[in-house]
Design a protein that fits this description.
Layout: H1 2-19, H2 26-43, H3 50-77, H4 85-108, H5 116-119
Helix pairs in contact: 1-3, 2-3, 3-4
């Protein structure tokens, strides 16, 4: 059972790392395509919601990555009696939200430029 728990934890950490904001290359290959698909889906409800939907999709992909990493690390390093699902979820949610707010602020203050095809969609 311990081997299965370690394998599951390792898989969660690996996939979570690819989705998390901790790797510099992940946005281009994972988070941005997920965010664009999410924004496209939301734009079916209202065409003006594409850009906000893309931001929410980006944020959600980061949240899922951080939470997956935490759950995987807990599986690997902590015994069952030290787990706290609420704390782990809130830490992942908070970290990913803080990261997304920083990225949005950098775009808002024109420190980072967004691609031209997204700039045309801003309200």
């Amino acid at each position: 059972m311990n081997l299965f728990k370690n394998l599951r934890g390792g898989a969660l950490v690996s996939i979570g790392y690819m989705l998390s904001p901790l790797s510099w290359w992940n946005d281009l290959f994972f988070n941005l395509p997920i965010a664009l698909v999410f924004g496209y889906g939301v734009s079916w409800l209202n065409p003006h919601w594409f850009f906000p939907g893309t931001v929410v999709g980006y944020w959600l992909s980061n949240v899922v990555g951080m939470v997956m990493m935490q759950f995987g690390a807990v599986d690997i390093f902590l015994p069952e009696d030290k787990r706290n699902l609420t704390r782990d979820t809130l830490l992942g949610f908070g970290g990913a939200t803080l990261y997304t707010v920083v990225v949005i602020a950098l775009v808002y203050f024109h420190i980072l430029d967004i691609p031209d095809f997204l700039a045309d969609l801003q309200p």
